């Protein structure tokens, strides 16, 4: 069944509501997927749950759906925030797709002293998140938040705990980092997972992070992981220990 995320402003979903698709979605349905009037699709908008809809009218550029029945109520279990420093385009796009599949509520892009800030196309990342949400059968699409500096993020992280992927202590005998699953099992409020760039965090950033009571330096094992591996590993453990993996 084709699933479509409807992002345009529209009334609350209800039976018999007619919804006009935009030209991209109309073309996708009729030309690419070769659907016809009377065929069914599944739609969601991130607020009203998932609904079945029937193709009611169909021009090449203009399709009208009619909602029939709600198939899934809107869940409200919010996943973690992933705060990730800008890295090269391909691994960053990979992180957005995998973080969507792994239930991240939002992805905050960060500028750090060693981040790779020369090219980020936020609109493209939003489209990747939307397509991943359709494929993974989520009922919402994670917000992709435009890059801000690390200190701006820290001044208003929007969560109770920041799980700071601190690779610095990977080889140190006296670890200051704790094992991620131990920290996760003590979490009471919403959390952000913080992952640095290919070059890691610099000493100044690490010190200011470690000085904060709401920041938990965590290690992701004895090996240095690439940023995309680290983001996926941390999200996986989060969902398994305190998230929506039942
Ligand atoms: N400085 C590293 C590269 C950083 S990896 C190097 O020397 O190559 C990118 C980010 O992934 C890090 O900033 C950190 O947030 C996370 N990360 C990678 N391996 C980690 C580990 N073993 N423990 C905790 N975080 C890790």
Quickly describe the structure:
The chain folds into two domains: 3-72, Hypothetical PUA domain-like, domain 1 (Ribosomal Protein L25, Chain P, Beta Barrel); 81-242, 3-Layer(aba) Sandwich (Alpha/beta knot).
Task: Kindly list the characteristics that best describe this protein.
246 residues, alpha/beta, Ribosomal Protein L25, Chain P, Alpha/beta knot, 2 domains, 7-stranded parallel β-sheet, 5-stranded mixed β-sheet, 7 helices, 12 strands, elongated, binds S-adenosyl-L-homocysteine
Verbal overview:
This protein has 246 residues and is an alpha/beta fold. It folds into 2 domains: 3-72, Beta Barrel (Ribosomal Protein L25, Chain P), CATH 2.40.240.20; 81-242, SPOUT methyltransferase, trefoil knot domain (Alpha/beta knot, 3-Layer(aba) Sandwich). Helix content is 30%, strand content 26%. It contains 7 helices and 12 strands. It has helices at 23-32, 89-101, 122-136, 150-155, 180-184, 203-210, 227-242, and strands spanning 3-5, 18-20, 40-44, 50-58, 63-72, 81-85, 106-111, 143-149, 161-165, 178-179, 191-195, 215-219. The longest helix is centred in the last third of the chain and has 16 residues, at 227-242. The mean pLDDT is 94. Bound molecules: S-adenosyl-L-homocysteine (SAH).
């Amino acid at each position: 069944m084709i699933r479509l995320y409807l992002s345009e402003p529209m009334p609350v979903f209800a039976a018999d509501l007619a919804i006009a698709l935009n030209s991209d979605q109309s073309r996708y349905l009729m030309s690419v997927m070769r659907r016809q009037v009377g065929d069914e699709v599944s739609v969601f908008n991130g607020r009203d749950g998932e609904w079945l809809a029937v193709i009611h009218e169909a021009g090449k550029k203009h399709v009208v759906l009619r909602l029939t029945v709600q198939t899934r109520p809107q869940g409200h279990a919010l996943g973690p925030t992933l705060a990730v420093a800008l890295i090269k385009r391909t691994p960053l796009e990979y992180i957005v797709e995998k973080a969507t599949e792994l239930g991240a509520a939002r992805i905050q892009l960060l500028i750090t002293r060693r981040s790779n800030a020369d090219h980020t196309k936020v609109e493209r990342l939003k489209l990747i998140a939307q397509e991943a949400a359709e494929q993974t059968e989520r009922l919402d699409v994670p917000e992709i938040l435009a890059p801000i500096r690390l200190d701006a993020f820290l001044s208003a992280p929007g969560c109770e705990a920041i799980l700071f992927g601190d690779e610095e202590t990977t080889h140190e005998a006296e670890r200051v980092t704790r094992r991620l699953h131990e920290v996760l099992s003590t979490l009471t409020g919403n959390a952000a997972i913080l992952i640095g760039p290919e070059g890691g965090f610099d000493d100044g950033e690490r010190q200011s992070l470690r000085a904060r009571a709401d920041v938990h330096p965590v290690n992701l094992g004895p090996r240095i992981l690439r940023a995309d591996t680290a983001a996926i590993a941390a999200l996986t453990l989060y969902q398994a220990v305190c998230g929506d993996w039942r």
